[in-house]
Design brief:
about 20% helix, alpha+beta, two-stranded parallel sheet, 13-stranded antiparallel sheet, 15 strands, single chain, about 280 residues
């Protein structure tokens, strides 16, 4: 009888400890959520990537802080010293996090019309094939983070002109608007006031295995967009404006001349803490 009582007490104690552990266990913090999502994508082959269902994104709306993965198609033009120049079609994914929106300078309210949202690339895997360079692989240089903004911000006039031309080449009906399959609440006509600007700098590594080259951007490549969603989706173009030097073994060996994102759609979305901030620092 005593043995049974002892076993019962022991069992109850174990259950109490287990319940206590369950109740007191804290949810994973934002850094863990981001790392987990990026790790998932890094392990995913491109065949499975193509099967992921798009996540709808609401237009003209400020989302809460989150990290989002976009399936993308883009082209980038490279020149490599002593080899030549080529425009490479790339496909793959980009992971971007954004924090809590805040009033733009001179504004007091937080709305689509008045806010600024900080963003940062946290993962990236792009692949393509060049007749000149052979296989091309582009990944994120995580050692050099760079912060971007979307919302009520200013962008260079040249960027606006290049974006206008790039969006003119989008499929009919897609100019200035996201793709209907991946958005909600998109107006048929987008006013100049509703469309907002995005500036997204990113440092990347570029591998051209056929040439034996492992390169990185000397300075961030800055992508500009005019958007109606955060993150931008559909056939809304993003473009680079200024060429960026490519460095290998501390020597400039070429340039990323230009780039144009042709299509993207969100395939993963993980919410972050309510007051999540995008900031770079120790």
């Amino acid at each position: 009888m005593k043995n049974k009582s002892f076993l019962l007490i022991l069992a109850c104690s174990v259950m109490a400890v287990a319940v206590g552990m369950t109740v007191s266990a804290a949810p994973p913090d934002d850094s863990v959520r981001i790392a987990s999502l990026v790790n998932e994508m890094n392990r995913m082959d491109f065949t499975k990537l193509e099967t992921l269902k798009p996540v709808q994104v609401k237009s003209y709306s400020l989302p809460g802080p989150s990290v989002d993965v976009m399936r993308v198609r883009l082209s980038e033009t490279y020149t490599i010293d002593g080899i030549g120049e080529d425009t490479v079609e790339l496909t793959g994914w980009i992971a971007v996090r954004h924090g809590a929106s805040r009033p733009a300078p001179g504004e007091k309210n937080v709305s689509w019309e008045t806010a600024v949202t900080d963003t940062e690339f946290v993962g990236l895997e792009l692949r393509g094939q060049s007749d000149v360079f052979g296989p091309v692989r582009v990944t994120l240089d995580e050692s050099r983070p760079a912060i971007g903004q979307v919302g009520k911000i200013s962008v260079p006039e040249r960027a606006s002109q290049i974006l206008l031309a790039a969006n003119d080449t989008a499929p009919k009906g897609a100019t200035g608007t996201p793709d209907a399959a991946t958005t909600e609440g998109t107006d048929a006509t987008v006013s100049g006031e509703a469309v907002k600007d995005c500036r997204a700098p990113v440092n990347v590594k570029v591998s051209m295995s056929q040439l034996g080259l492992e390169m990185k951007t000397k300075t961030p490549a800055v992508w500009y967009s005019r958007v109606t969603t955060i993150p931008p989706v559909g056939h809304v173009a993003s473009v680079t404006v200024d060429p960026v030097a490519l460095v290998s073994a501390d020597r400039e060996v070429g340039k990323l001349v230009s780039g144009t994102v042709k299509f993207r759609e969100v395939v993963r979305a993980v919410p972050l803490s309510k007051d999540h901030e995008v900031a770079v620092g120790p």
